[in-house]
Amino acid sequence: MNYLEEHYKHYDEDGRLLSRHGQVEYLTTMKTIAACLKDIADPVILEVGAGTGRYSVTLAKQGFRVTAVELVEHNLEILKSKLDGTEAITAVQGNALDLSRFRDATFDLTLLLGPMYHLYTKEEKLGALSEAVRVTKAGGHILVAYCMNEPTVIQYVFGMNKLHELMDLHMLTADWHCISEPKDIFEMVRTEEIAELDSLVPVRRIKLVATDGATNYMREYIDAMDDETFDKWMDYHFTICERQDLIGASHHTLDVLQKE
């Protein structure tokens, strides 16, 4: 069974990022993308694992030249349906582990905003990161998103009373790291694992950002906020989202790298 295909046939990724709580992650990521592009004239962008195009299509409609690579055919069809033909975007099916269709040092910015969620070994993660770095120009940026371990333990294992079920399935290590395989869809990491991957490729880290921070711990309150309160929440979030003492508690992080 292709677990990923089945998952995304029934999962509304656009709906998640369009919800008020999902907007926190989206706005934080877009803010980071804008900072990476601000000094580049006519940048060329690659998104690997583009999903339904929430980022790729938006960037293309803003006038950027974008190539979107997506593994899941269902997602790719949705992405293409959002285009009216005026955008400078190429959308193709492909795998994050093999970007051989692209030459070395082609893109000013490479986005890897989904693949690390679904890669379960260090070798796979390193393969995807290495390919993203390879196709990025020297001095260009690579943005890599991860799902974090501790929020899953707090909210899912304990918060949703899954402790005994996961213990029976041997899905927790002695030091409380979640163990995933393809049927579980999502892979969880810790900040030290991200740092280890970074050390194995020719990059320097600019920063590691908590893209949703505390938001998903209180999503029902975030979704109920009026516009003024939500604006204040975003101001607070942007103030603390790069504090390294809080990063590991964020459900999603964004590793901002620059190729050497």
Structure description:
The chain is an alpha/beta fold and 260 residues long. The chain has a single domain, classed as Vaccinia Virus protein VP39 (Rossmann fold). Helices cover 40% and strands 20% of the residues. The protein contains 11 helices and 8 strands. Strands 1, 2, 3, 4, 5, 6, 7 and 8 form an 8-stranded mixed sheet that branches. Strand 4 (107-112), helix 6 and strand 5 form a beta-alpha-beta unit. The longest helix has 18 residues, at 20-37. The model has no long low-confidence stretch (mean pLDDT 95).
For this entry, give a set of tags.
260 residues; alpha/beta; Rossmann fold; eight-stranded mixed beta sheet
Which helices and strands, and how do they pair?
Elements: H1 3-10, H2 13-18, H3 20-37, E1 44-48, H4 56-61, E2 65-70, H5 73-81, E3 89-93, E4 107-112, H6 122-134, E5 136-148, H7 149-158, H8 163-168, E6 188-189, H9 191-198, E7 203-210, H10 219-223, H11 227-240, E8 252-259
Parallel strand pairs: 1-2, 1-4, 2-3, 4-5, 5-6
Antiparallel strand pairs: 5-8, 7-8
Give the assembly state of these chains: single chain
In round numbers, the mean pLDDT is: 95
DSSP summary, beta strand count = 8
**Compute the gyration radius: what is it?**
18 Å
Contiguous helical run count: 11
Question: Could you spell the SSE succession in H and E letters?
Answer: HHHEHEHEEHEHHEHEHHE
Overall tally of structural domains: 1
The CATH superfamily title: Vaccinia Virus protein VP39
CATH top-level class: Alpha Beta
Shape: globular
Biggest pleated sheet:
8 strands, mixed
Q: Based on the structure given, which CATH architecture is correct?
A: 3-Layer(aba) Sandwich
Structural class: alpha/beta
Helix coverage percent of residues?
25-40%
Poorly predicted sequence stretches spanning 5 or more consecutive residues? none
